Structure formats: structure tokens, C-alpha cells
Amino acid sequence: PKTDIVFLKVHKSASSTVMNILFRFGETHNLTFAFPVGGGNQLYYPHHFLARFVQGFSPRSPRQFNILCHHMRFLQPEVQKVVSSSAVYFSILRNPVQLMESSFMYYKATSAFSRARSLEEFLSQPYRYYNPTNGDRHYARNLMAFDFGFNPDAEVSAKRVQFMLKAIEASFDLLLISEYFDESMVLLKELLCWDLDSVVFFPLNSRDSSTKATLSDAIVEKIKQWNRLDWEIYTHFNRTFWERIDQDFGRERMQREVKALRERQAELARICLQGTGSVAPKDIKDSSLRPLQHGTAKILGYNIKQGLDKETERMCRRLVTPELQYSSTLYKKQFAQKPP
């Protein structure tokens, strides 16, 4: 199994679920994480990543960490200072239309969104609300391009798009697609030489459907135009994702593997969860399993069955622990020997 990993966590793209998979694997195999200084959940985002943002890194005696997965704005020469040269790099993309709808709900308090009553209103005159000089502008435009380190306000020329796609391809071994999350996990398992249980997941940080908006065709077109860089990145890597499946895997084998993953998940849900799945935040009985609520989105969580034996309870708890709580537990464990 590969143990040196860089995951670029792209906002609002099922990346919290991926983080849980990496946290569980790292904890089980006693790996080290490149935590933000002081143990926060972001590596000084939205600044471009620097090695010195990592707790325990020093240029004089650079130490390497197994897994780098907290929110950062990608800058590969700096990333290379904190991980092994053989590290596997991967990230995840989401359709920019759904991504923007989600961002609008989740980052409602940001400068670009706070004064717009609806996404439609924002898109009817974006520059009335959006200021390219504001420090939090990236939440409102080409958020994926921004997370990959590019300028979200750059003009969209064929040359620039080619440059971006080539740069991403040169840096990353795999780009997952959140709309095909199960297929993505199968590809990831293959790339990292992991077993099935390492990539089994329960969706984390997902919203209650009552806070999701349906979008008209006109709005969808406006979102694509406004997030043109993201749209180019997404359509390109969605295509290469399926090309990779056809070349390395074949659709039939992929179907078999996805079926096995879903069956194992259903089995774990029966073992671990009270009820049939995720519940509203107010219905989560154990407060340590309650995810952070953000913006106007309602973030769902889970209840674990009572009366499980210790080992099973530990496995189940790992599967449903929200990102911030899990990160903080692992941080304390990794830096336990040092006084605060």
C-alpha cells in the first residue's frame, strides 16, 4: 500500500468524505500528517501553500510527512518540501454548476454573496456584488481553478486553458469526480494499492436536501460562463476519468467493483448506524459527532448504534466522525509528546 500521499482538498466537492478515508488509513497505519501550525483545519488558505505553514517543519532540518490533505491553495515546489518525492498526488472535482449552488448556500456570508438575495440575483449582475480585489472573492468564482493555484479572474483563452490543464496533469496522478464518487474510490484504491475497507465511506459534510435549490437552464448557462475556467477543467478531467476507466479497467470490472463497495457499505451501515442513514444536526445524540454548521446549509451527521463491542464501536466511530473533530484528535495524538 502507498503511504505517501498529497490530496488537494477542493471546496464543496465531497472532499470531507475523502479526508475521512485518509484520516482512517493514516490512523490505522500510524502515519504522520502535515498539520497546519497550531492544528487548525486550513494551511493558511487562501494564501498559496508554503512549507512553513506545516507544524514541525523547519528549513534547517526538513522532515517529511506521509499525508498532506488539509485545505490549501496548491503550490507544488513548496508541497515537495514536506512530502516524499515518491508521493502520490490526487484531487477531486465537481460539476461547477452544483459547486456554485452549494458555495452560494455555504459561503453566504462572504463579500460577494452576502448582499445578493439569490443566486439568480447575483448572476444577473455579478460585478455589482463581486469585487476581484476582495480577499474572499474566490468562493464566488472559479473556486476549483483557485484551489489549484490559478487566477480565478484570468481571461479564458484557449492558450490559458491548455496551460492550466497541462499543469494539473503534470502535477496530479489522479483526479476524482465527485458525481462518480464510487467509481472514484475504486480508481483510488487501485492507484494506492489499498483494500476495499480502506475506501469504504459514509458521506460526510453533506447538506439536507431541503436547502438545495433547483436551477433553471438559463441559470445553469450563466454559471458555466461565470465559472468558465472551472468548466474547462471539469469537462476535460471528467472525460479523461472515463478514458482511464476504459483503458485500465473496463466498464464491466468497474461495475463489479462498485457493486462490492456498495454492498460492503450497506453491511457497515447495518452494523454501525442507528436508523437508515444520515440525520439532521438536531437529531445527532452524541455532540462529538455533530458536524460544524455553516452558512444557511444544514449539514447532516450520524448516530451510532448503542451496545457495540469496543472494536466495532471504534471502527464505526471513525467512519462517522466529522472532519474537524477527527483532525483535532489526530493532531493531539501526533503532537502529544510536546507540551502545548
TrEMBL record:
Signal peptide start-end: none
UniProt KW Nucleotide-binding keyword: no
InterPro entries for the chain: Gal-3-0_sulfotransfrase, P-loop_NTPase
Family note: Belongs to the galactose-3-O-sulfotransferase family.
Principal location class: Golgi
Gene Ontology CC terms: Golgi membrane
UniProt keyword terms in alphabetical order: Glycoprotein, Golgi apparatus, Membrane, Signal-anchor, Transferase, Transmembrane, Transmembrane helix
Source species of the chain: Crotophaga sulcirostris
Record's bilayer topology term: Single-pass type II membrane protein
Domain of life the protein comes from: Eukaryota
Location(s), subcellular: Golgi apparatus membrane
One GO term of the biological process aspect: glycolipid biosynthetic process
An MF annotation (GO) of this entry: galactosylceramide sulfotransferase activity
UniProt name for this protein: G3ST2 sulfotransferase
